[in-house]
Amino acid sequence: MAVCIAVIAKENYPLYIRSTPTENELKFHYMVHTSLDVVDEKISAMGKALVDQRELYLGLLYPTEDYKVYGYVTNSKVKFVMVVDSSNTALRDNEIRSMFRKLHNSYTDVMCNPFYNPGDRIQSSGSVSLSRAFDNMVTSMMIQVC
Amino acid sequence: MEGLTLSDAEQKYYSDLFSYCDIESTKKVVVNGRVLELFRAAQLPNDVVLQIMELCGATRLGYFGRSQFYIALKLVAVAQSGFPLRVESINTVKDLPLPRFVASKNEQESRHAASYSSDSENQGSYSGVIPPPPGRGQVKKGSVSHDTVQARTSADAQEPASPVVSPQQSPPTSPHTWRKHSRHPSGGNSERPLAGPGPFWSPFGEAQSGSSAGDAVWSGHSPPPPQENWDQTTVRTVASATTAIEIRRQSSSYDDPWKITDEQRQYYVNQFKTIQPDLNGFIPGSAAKEFFTKSKLPILELSHIWELSDFDKDGALTLDEFCAAFHLVVARKNGYDLPEKLPESLMPKLIDLEDSADVGDQPGEVGYSGSPAEAPPSKSPSMPSLNQTWPELNQSSEQWETFSERSSSSQTLTQFDSNIAPADPDTAIVHPVPIRMTPSKIHMQEMELKRTGSDHTNPTSPLLVKPSDLSEENKINSSVKFASGNTVADGYSSSDSFTSDPEQIGSNVTRQRSHSGTSPDNTAPPPPPPRPQPSHSRSSSLDMNRTFTVTTGQQQAGVVAHPPAVPPRPQPSQAPGPAVHRPVDADGLITHTSTSPQQIPEQPNFADFSQFEVFAASNVNEEQDDEAEKHPEVLPAEKASDPANSLRVAKADSKTEEKTAASAPTNVSKGTAPLAPPPKPVRRRLKSEDELRPEVDEHTQKTGVLAAVLASQPSIPRSVGKDKKAIQASIRRNKETNTVLARLNSELQQQLKDVLEERISLEVQLEQLRPFSHL
């Protein structure tokens, strides 16, 4: 279960970021921001001509003592960053991959909505939300905090 | 009993109620069920009710005469207003609001109450309102009286007490007819605002009458009115304000609130045609966006509607989806809250979608919270209103197509990681195999091996492409990747253990399996079933078994010990190679020991083997399939081959392919014809004969020669028993081969040391250049 999930646009501004509310959320925002550097490095390291071959799942970006940060980038340079609690040792790489896959699918669903302008924040407001399904999916992936 | 003075409204109300309760029209109401229900509907405590009944004298009489009934009603009003129940209060309490009766069973009563109240509320707006226009075919007795009452009361200046509104609000408990009661206050208050949608709404009340629609909000046509299941008077609102009753009527017109009537559907279809003439086609998202934006709903709501209605998530609306979206917009316009999930009746009918539909899971809902990727278009179990089959069938097929497209796309999206090797390794693994971002050396080797093997076996094109990339990547990331890919490499090595691959194909498949399933587990996949393919002498896989079986008593004995240490390398394309290199490899090239026969044999002893070139050339074609035994003679031939090639091959084993260039010159200096192999392709073309072939024909020749020579060897022992001369000749040959191999061995060892040194230096450089190591 992730502790924080963020969707970052191509221009490196956040489209969606959500953390478990128990912690100081700013810390997660900061971690996500710093992980962007790693993401960029990984993208560039993959090679200029290898965009097709580049795998979307970036893997563990960097670990801290409490958390591990995983990254995923789409072909349109939209990045998904997930912060996972390090104590959650049962979380395997494949599970992270599947979580990213679900994220990606939900994101494409949001994009398919013609009323969503690419580049807008994926936000829910009031009773109706542009991204209700997206929110629900993210909620299901976040740590269930009582 | 004192006289009861009733106001006009009360008079009418009471008489109406009396007539309602007076089932038998006997002018006196027995304490029957209706009366009791009425009193129950008054929401008064039982004792109060009893008190009322006592006061009015019904208990005395045993029945409710008209006066008693009126008194009782008045007392109910008194009680509801909070005044103490006394007979005197009947007349003393001024401006008593009408008794409120929760419409438990009798809609009419509450309707009456509501109508009265609404009428009293909306006096101004109703001044011109006439009893509902004709067309009330289904009008019940109550509604008739209601209408008349309405007519009567419309002129009354009633006390628009707010409590009167409550009947409108209380009915939410009642069945669907009162579903919209939350709107009644709004209906009363916002009638002006509703004037816009009013005309739009009005046709809704005409479903049963079948009267044509009025005006729509944005299209100029009103959608066919929703179906009214109960005895709603079909009201054709006169342009302006819709009465609360009408609103109520119309609101309850959704009997299943989301059912689309035929007229509505026809209207939607017409609208669809204006955008997309082909009824089986799609409305693209942008066009739909414009269209629905005209409805002036907030964007968020529109996007929510879209989320609900775009069933297959393809960014376009089919006819069914469009109708559902339109219906939702209409509903929203009229104040209905949007559902969380698509109502059952609005789900597009997808007839053909058997396989992917999770019909059981979501009987009537779109699984938005579920897996959006799959988006199973569950078949709507009940679509009574969508009776047209023609659009459905076509749409279903189209929806199915779109869905399949989407599903395929989503699957390609989602499954790029889940390429679990099929149980049957013979099936070509054509789905995209995830490329390790950090290909390790072993990984790359496997890729090469696979690639080479795939040349003969599986058309795994992605694999074919990968090695080149990997070769390039390796340069940059080799050290890091190696570290990171260790786990995988272990998996690879374990799974691709040389010993477990008796055949080339098997090894390929094994590697493929491990490659595809590398991420999750490092368990070695079961040895693949042997493939009925001819072994390729130069193919990547090394037929170890064959090598071992033949190696008895030969130099290849050393080879036996070697393979376990050798990581899953693409088997040397040249059969002779392995045998030769085994001894060399056993020296210590762990993962990199280039088992490729070609490579190591390509030692700097070029000058010695030029003579073998001819021989090699002659035998190339014949012996290419042989392995192992061809080593000795072929080795020299191979040695004579391009040093670069040899180095390249050697390098392919090692992580540091860059050294190829470095060592190439060194080899060149030894006097062989340098073949300037680019390190990258070198790394990539592991040792497969196929790769090297285009680069160095010479090399191939040499390898062929080696193979040929080695092939000739096995025959020798066999003939031992036959001919002494043959034995001696063979002994001589073996000795020559021995010397050659020994020399080769020494040279290779020297080369190995050089390569290792270079590798270490490169690693150091890499570390310096890449301080940020990925953990």
Oligomer: heterodimer
| Helicity range of chain B | 40-55%
The chain-level structural class of chain A is: alpha+beta
User: Which strand order spans the largest sheet of chain A, edge to edge or round the barrel?
Assistant: 2-1-5-4-3
Largest interface: A-B, 45 and 48 residues
CA-to-CA gap between the ends of chain A? 14 Å
Highest-level CATH class of chain A: Alpha Beta
What's the number of helices of chain A?
Answer: 3
Secondary structure: helix percent of chain A: 25-40%
Q: What is the topology, as strand order, of the major beta sheet of chain B? A: 1-2
Shape of chain A: globular
Number of domains of chain A: 1
Low-confidence stretches of chain B: 104-255, 352-423, 453-522, 550-565, 568-606, 620-700
What does the average pLDDT of chain B come to?
55
Q: How many strand elements of chain A?
A: 7
Q: What fraction strand of chain B?
A: under 5%
What is the second-level CATH architecture of chain A?
Answer: 2-Layer Sandwich
Kindly identify the CATH topology of chain A.
Beta-Lactamase
